[in-house]
Specification:
elongated; about 75% helix; about 0% strand; mainly alpha
Amino acid sequence: MTQDRAYAQYDIEKKSPIIAYVLWFFLGYIGVHRFYLGRVVSGLIMLAMSALFALLTFVSFGLFGFLWFIMGAWWLIDALLIPGMISRRNNEVANRVLGRRY
């Protein structure tokens, strides 16, 4: 692969902080931003927890609504973790595509 093609491939695959934060803001409680950043396992955990908490809240008429506090805390903490997740993901892409370490 030529160097120009490698840089083009890196530009295609790198993750955008703007997209990550938009996904975090609107769909973060179900972990969509984590799927976008390649963190599938933790994204699935967030999705499962959200589904479980929604079901418990609906079935118990709100008695387990405090469980949403857990998801809200995770959601807020992720706002601080997103830059590091983007950096790690983009470094992985650069290492694979460009064959160098950043």
